[in-house]
Design a protein that fits this description.
Layout lengths: L2 H10 L11 E4 L12 E5 L4 E5 L12 E4 L4 E4 L13 E4 L4 E5 L15 E4 L4 E4 L12 E5 L4 E5 L14 E4 L4 E4 L12 E5 L4 E5 L2 E2 L3 E2 L3 E4 L4 E3 L14 E5 L4 E5 L13 E4 L4 E3 L11 E5 L4 E5 L2 E3 L4 E2 L3 E4 L2 E5 L11 E4 L8 E6 L7 E7 L2 E6 L9 E4 L3 E8 L2 E6 L9 E9 L8 E3 L2 E5 L3
Antiparallel strand pairs: 1-28, 2-3, 3-4, 4-5, 6-7, 7-8, 8-9, 10-11, 11-12, 12-13, 14-15, 15-18, 16-17, 18-19, 20-21, 21-22, 22-23, 24-25, 25-28, 26-27, 29-39, 30-31, 31-36, 32-35, 32-37, 33-34, 35-36, 37-38, 37-39
Length: 455
């Protein structure tokens, strides 16, 4: 019986539904921080992951925990020095100096307390308190970004008190030595909980939303060029007015990604996602868990936005403990079975729209260096292939598209010139490797790969 027919027979033994995931991917992590709001998170180049600090939790006092996301799981760190617990904070990576910068925050669990005026820096190992001669004063719920063109941390707005809600409208810059108040000719006015990020392509710091407790929210997009603020001339669609959203910059696609937050009037949580390309807003066809005051970072190594936590609802209060990732993805799963050259290993690039998609296979039997690569749209709970003469081997995904490939030196590869389809569509891959002396059938099989189309 031909191998293809045998595989089709094996597929028929197990019926599996088609799995289509949204662009946002909920990660099932072994460990994670407790639910929290108003924490700070940023890319940490020393580890290639993200660093998270603080936040308001269900405990009486704000958290002073430092956590690291490595793309797979969370790890709580134990730095020698750390700031006291606080929330209403933001973190940015100062590229020029190689440190992550955090300012201020509310340090009490109750309204009777004070906002901090401390500047802290994370070097990948521990926290160090900076001692600038001038600072913005006690602030929390401000907006923070890093201007890579001018090597400046940019801070805007924020609040000074929980007991008497009011927002500030100062623009401050930090150069690693001191803070400077910039006398702009125009600004967005008093705001707290606004979302902000630097758009590298246009050279502007972008600010959206936020709320003036005395007036309300807005859906205005503001641009800062290092001297003054100006309203962006948005003519097309734009995100609804919101407060407590998150925004990060994706340098590979040159867009600022905005998500979540709440309606300033009704408190309704937003689960949508928008992108600013330097001239216009575009809504992405994807949703996530809507939260207020979550935190997010962009990971260049994975080309993924990662977000965590936030408040799902106010009455009753539900603090989110989910980790979400946004972007194209290819993840190995399952295990292959060993042959005469080891266990075949399949690795794929993340499938990005209109870009090449590559699959590579190693540990092939020589001199054949031949394999059958197949893709499908469903996964299986490991169909045992012993009945085909492939002891210890398992089929993990349906073989809908079957491609013979060859190579040299124990490896083979295949390239799809350009990915087309719908963002969020998922597919799965596996490979059969020719190995005449491995078992009765003369084939071994690789691990599986789960892939999701994205940007």
């Amino acid at each position: 019986m031909p191998l293809r027919v045998q595989l089709a027979t094996a597929v028929a033994l197990v019926a599996a539904p088609v799995h289509v995931h949204a662009q946002w991917d909920l990660r099932d992590t072994t460990t994670r921080p407790s639910g929290r709001v108003n924490a700070a998170m940023v890319f940490d180049p020393t580890s290639g992951g993200a660093i998270l600090f603080g936040g308001s939790t269900t405990l009486p006092a704000p958290s002073n925990q430092t956590w690291r996301w490595n793309g797979t799981d969370w790890t709580q760190l134990a730095p020698a020095t750390a700031p006291s617990g606080r929330y209403g904070i933001e973190l940015v990576h100062d590229v020029a100096r190689g440190v992550c910068v955090m300012y201020g925050g509310w340090t009490s669990a109750i309204a009777i307390g004070s906002a901090s005026n401390q500047t802290w820096e994370w070097n990948g190992t521990t926290w160090t308190q900076a001692t600038p001669a001038v600072d913005p004063g006690g602030l929390f719920n401000y907006a923070l970004g890093y201007d890579t063109a001018r090597s400046r941390v940019v801070l805007y707005g924020g609040s000074t008190s929980l007991a008497f809600p009011s927002a500030q409208h100062g623009t401050w810059e930090y150069d690693g030595t001191t803070w400077t108040l910039v006398a702009t000719t125009a600004d967005p006015g008093p705001l707290d909980r606004a979302a902000m990020a630097f758009h590298g392509g246009s050279g502007h710091t972008v600010l959206f939303g936020g709320v003036d407790p005395m007036v309300g929210g807005n859906d205005t997009t503001w641009l800062y060029d290092g001297a003054t603020w100006a309203v962006a001339p948005v003519t097309g669609p734009r995100p609804p007015a919101r407060t407590g959203a998150v925004m990060v910059y994706d340098p590979f696609r040159d867009v600022c990604v905005l998500t979540c937050g709440a309606n300033p009037t009704t408190g309704q949580r937003f689960d949508d996602t928008w992108e600013w390309d330097g001239a216009a807003w575009h809504q992405m066809p994807t949703t996530t868990t809507g939260v207020l005051d979550g935190c997010a970072a962009f990971l260049p190594s994975a080309r993924q936005v990662v977000k965590f936590g936030g408040q799902q609802s106010f009455a009753p209060v539900v603090l989110n403990i989910e980790t979400w990732e946004f972007g194209a993805k290819a993840t190995p799963f399952g295990t292959g079975c060993a042959g005469t050259a080891g266990t075949p290993t399949l690795v794929c690039t993340a499938p990005r729209l209109a870009q090449p998609f590559q699959a590579g296979l190693t540990n092939l039997s020589q001199p054949g260096n031949a394999a059958i690569l197949f893709f499908g749209f469903s996964t299986f709970p490991a169909i045992d292939l012993a009945f085909l003469g492939m002891s210890t081997c398992a089929l993990l995904t349906e073989p809908v598209v079957i491609l013979p490939i060859g190579g040299t030196g124990g490896s083979a590869s295949w390239t799809w010139p350009a990915v087309f389809g719908f963002v969020g569509d998922a597919f799965y891959g596996q490979a059969l490797a020719l190995d005449p002396f491995a078992n009765a059938l003369g084939y071994t099989i690789s691990n599986g790969v789960s892939a999701r189309i994205g940007w």
